[in-house]
Amino acid sequence: MGAIQAIRGTRDILPPETNYWQWVEAIAKGILDRALYQEIRTPIFEQTSLFERGIGEATDVVGKEMYSFTDRGDRPITLRPEGTAGVVRAYIEQNLQATGGVQRLWYTGPMFRYERPQAGRQRQFHQLGVEVLGSADPRADVEVIALGTDILKALGLSNLSLALNSVGNGGDRQRYREALISYLTPFKDELDPDSQDRLERNPLRILDSKAKRTQEIVQDAPSILDHLGPDSQRHFDQVQQLLTDLGIAYQLTPTLVRGLDYYTHTAFEIQSSDLGAQATVCGGGRYDGLVAELGGPITPAVGWAMGLERLIILLQQMATPPVPGPDFYIISKGEKAEPQALILAQQLRQQGFTVALDLSASAFGKQFKRADKSGAIACLVLGEGEMATGTVQLKWLASKAQETLQLEDLMGDITELKQRLAGHREK
């Protein structure tokens, strides 16, 4: 029988690539912790109706891309294609609004969409996202944009740009919808097939078409920014002013509508020119009607999601995550020395040191070469001679200085050992 392979559209994430993932997650968590965002973890699968109602049945995600099935209880189930709907479901079901105030939440994990696999876009992909529930204040819009920008900059990314739009409220969009249909109808036969299908059902999605001729047609389409009511215009003006106050440059992009139906008012994407055609690394906006649509109280909300696969590709081109070597690399050879090396490794780890234990039982020379490559600060050597005298050889790998210590003395004063280690790390 042939070997079993990963399913198309999925991939293994192996070392050392996992260093990048851990780096991104650590940077993001640090920044979000300082802004008092709290992590939420929701199920990977939900009732299909959650996404049909939340995302919109006329969207490509619901209509073409969801992984849905019927479980053994004859219930329609879907692997989550995005994170916001599940967070909102949890917000309602767990009555988070009862705790009072604004809920600042973040999440990360796998999502699933049946798309054509390509670099940075898999059928199982990963997102990092934030959601702010309970505030209609334009400052919430700008806060989440600023945090997304801070995360990307903290990772060392440059060549970033912010595309910004407002899709208004329901009344604004209805007026714009009518104007857009009126403009596009004479071009119906020239539109791509998907856009022809969307003309009556969801014409705003035509603005997001990748078909060349459709893109040419929509260049002269009416702008939604000309159809905003006074309240929507006021909100959008404040968002722009606050971005300017924070020194965050942006480009007004009237064709930016995002791919999900729940957006209201602010819509945005943070893009990198280093990614080519698939330039967006972070996208989101406001969704003031989603909580009520899913059965909860009227609750304004705003958030974003980052596609981690695209972000990792970009980081691999531009940066290297800091991966410190171990504090100690333990070398051993001999029937008595090798078990003692394991004991010593565990003792040091329990005291907070990072320790690599060579398990090869190969010649000392080969083990020393691996110790040098490991980036360790010091090497601890146990052989039959050391076992006979109750000692250990301590070799500082940078300076090549070496000393003989009693085993009990090595573990006797942990504070001193940490100080000595820190001194050699700084050299």
From TrEMBL:
Broad class of enzyme this protein falls into: ligase
Entry-linked CDD domains: HisRS-like_core, HisRS_anticodon
Aminoacyl-transfer RNA synthetases class-II family profile domain residues: 28-324
GO molecular function terms listed in the Swiss-Prot or TrEMBL record: histidine-tRNA ligase activity
Signal peptide: none
EC number: 6.1.1.21
Classification via InterPro entries: aa-tRNA-synth_II, aa-tRNA-synth_II/BPL/LPL, Anticodon-bd, Anticodon-bd_dom_sf, His-tRNA-ligase, HisRS-like_core, HisRS/HisZ, HisRS_anticodon
Main localization (coarse): cytoplasm
Cellular compartments annotated: Cytoplasm
Record keyword Cytoplasm present: yes
Coiled-coil zones: 400-427
Keyword annotations from UniProtKB, A to Z: Aminoacyl-tRNA synthetase, ATP-binding, Coiled coil, Cytoplasm, Ligase, Nucleotide-binding, Protein biosynthesis
Superkingdom of this protein's organism: Bacteria
Reactions that this protein is recorded to catalyse: tRNA(His) + L-histidine + ATP = L-histidyl-tRNA(His) + AMP + diphosphate + H(+)
HAMAP family in the record: His_tRNA_synth (MF_00127)
NCBIfam families, sorted: hisS
Similarity comment: family membership: Belongs to the class-II aminoacyl-tRNA synthetase family.
Record note on quaternary structure: Homodimer.
Name this protein carries in UniProt: Histidine--tRNA ligase
